[in-house]
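User: Predict Biotin-dependent carboxyltransferase family protein's structure from this.
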Amino acid sequence: MSGLLIEASNPLCLLQDAGRFGVRHLGVTQGGALDWVSMRWANGLLGNAPGAAVVEVTLGGFGVVAEADCVLALAGGDLDARIDGQPLKPWRSFVLRKGQRLQLSQPLSGARAYLAAPGGFDAPQVLGSCASVVREELGGLDGQGKALAKGERLSWAGAAPGVREVPPALRPSLCGDGVLDLIVGAQIGDFAGQSLFEAFNRAFTLDSRADRMGIRLLGPALKYQGAPMISEGIPLGAVQVPPDGQPIVLLNDRQTIGGYPRLGALTPLSLARLAQCLPGAQVRFRAVVQALAWEEHRQYLQRFADF
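Assistant:
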């Protein structure tokens, strides 16, 4: 069994996998990697299952030292990763020799990087997943949702494959300013006409008030004119509009029900793109029909199959 000793970490460095499903009726949220695309590429580089456990590093501040020679993979945002001070770009697997240090310091592009190991990192399964949800105290190395901490060890039992990289043509575009596809929802017709025009024709700025539950967007105030709502289930990527009119995109650690009206929900690919946006980035919504979103998703999944 191979391992890494964690030498630096922070509350934004978490063990994640594809998420926790079939438990929302219990009030338990989904969790899982915010940028599922980058997680899947990191796992694909090592021949892992798509949802194998990875380390999600947000904004940097994470460092490990190898306790034995190993092969790891890194995908997602460029967080100025270095091995013993030498630059390491993402979208590739690489060899880390015994005693070498891997450090991810700060974002150069994108917001989140995903570190994978052969077969996935070892962690207990809680309700079918090791995804860390700090608020619910579920998942992670100890099963109680805690962030990775200095002095802890990451281990895995998979066989080390050869080294390779994701071809540039297959790498996703990390968000600077981007377009987010949105499947319109049940309350779309209850917003004022001018608000709907502005929702799909004006840019929104990502607020610094953001976490794994949701990201607040700053822009034109959207006016809801419908009747008060009864709380209902909230899907991943839901764009809800509270009374101040500023949309909030709900992410993996969202609450399971809510009573604010919704414009709709972002597509999975747009959610992955949003997860790489830093505060201050500008985004626009583009309305799409569900059939088109499904076809785009299917075509993108074929990239992994062809890799």
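The first strand starts at residue 2 and ends at 8.
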